[in-house]
Every structure is written in structure tokens, then in C-alpha cells.
Please model this.
Amino acid sequence: MKRTSLAALLVALFGLVAPPAHAGPEHWTAQDMREAIPMEQLVRAPAFTPKDVEKGLPMSIPNGGGAWTGSGKITQTAGRVFFTMQGRKASCSGDAVTSTNGSVVVTAGHCVKYQGAFHTDWVFVPGYNNGNAPYGQWAAKTTLTTPQWQASEDMNYDVGIGVVNQLNGQRLTDVVGAQGIAFNQARNQSMYTFGYPAAAPYDGTKLIYCSGSTITDFLLTKDHGMSCNMTGGSSGGPWFLNFNEATGTGIQASVNSFGYVFLPNYMFGPYFGTDAQNLYNKAQTT
Model:
């Protein structure tokens, strides 16, 4: 299978193909944000049903999906990402991480670029809550992705970054704080993942999380996998190692990327290796 066809095969929760482009909003109103379509519903993939794909998957973990009712830094660093894709107002998730420029938001590659074009009107809303932007809307100065995603949308490298402008003279992480980030970490560890799923049974109004043991995808990628029922709109949300529930802090080592249509309630995220590290290093000095 060619890598160029892999993205079309794997992206989770397929839906409507977008219509021709038109100008997007200059500012995302509460209604705009509530009505934004989960990114995954703007792409479509062919059916694919290999046999015995669930064999060997661990299915019992502490939390397979639920609202985050705690506090801590995660309620400020995690947020929704809004953008215009082919004329449609769409959404993903993202997370503010520590960086030299204090302006780096990590998300999925398909949340910055899809089918050869970068999205426009890209903003990050940390701490999003049911149409409210308690820490403001942070517009991207530039969006970046890995060379592999940019060239062929290889799902193994589905990592994107938004470098946001200052807001009211302040840098993003000076306002909301930042999570740590790490690369080339050991696989198959316990992790936490967060996002703003906006497709049923979720509605995008609140922060959702999953936690538990992870596996390495044995099908078409080398991604991390976790039992998790998050839906469209959660793409780009952070995966953490060593997450502390009391402080809401951890070390980010992946992002929500895709789910196989034939394997419900399981989510996958790319391994943060050297290419993701090079992307981060470029972004934090931009």
C-alpha cells in the first residue's frame, strides 16, 4: 500500500466531503465555535474490514472516556482548535507546551493540513468551555507539520503545530502555562489522553479524557493505541506520560490521530520520534 493512500484509509469517523471554499470568519464567535464541524466529518475513506483485527488487544483500562472533572493545569493548556477547511468551519483539539517562544500549540497534522492544503483562519482556544474562551482566542502566525505528513500525509507522522501570535502583548504560555514534551520515549506505557470530541455521544462543550495502558498498532502504522471512545473533534488532543491528576500536568508524547472504522472505541496516536522533535525545535524558534 502506498503511503499516499494511507491517510484516506485511516482517518477516523468519516463523514461529509466539504463544498468549495469561501472566506472564513475573521473572529470565531461563540456560535461559530459551537457549530464548527469535527474535522473528521469532512473527510471520507473507503470501507476496510480485515479479519481478526481485535485479536490480542487489551480492552480493560481505568477510563475509556469521560468528562475531566478535576482541575489543574490541563484545564488551561488543553483547548479546541478552530479553522476553515475547504470553506467549512471545522474543529480539532490542541495543547500548549513549553517552548522558547512561549507560543507553541501541538496538534495533529491533519488539523493544520489535509489533502494538499493548509487550513486557514486557524485559532487556538485554551480552556474552551461551551462556547466560552476564558483565556482568549490565539490566532496562528504560522502552522507547521512533519515532512512526511506534508509530502504524503503519512499517518505515522500525523503531527502538527500552530505557532500563535501574542494576545494583548502576552505570550500564550505566560497566560495559560505549559505542559512538558518529550521524544523517543519507551513504548507501551500507561498514558492519559485529552480532547474535545464533538461528534455523538459528545458535543464539544467540555474536556474529555481517557487513561490506561497502551499498545503499539500492529496493523498499518506504528502508532500508540489506547482503548478510548473519544469521537471526531478530539484529533490533536494530547497524550501524556507521567500524568499527575492532582496537578493536571504531564509529559506530552503523542496526539489523538485516528481510529479504525472496524475497531470502535480504540484510538491511535503517532509516536513522537526524531522527526516530531525536529518539528518542535523549528516551531519553538519561529
Notes: The mean pLDDT is 85. The first strand starts at residue 37 and ends at 38.
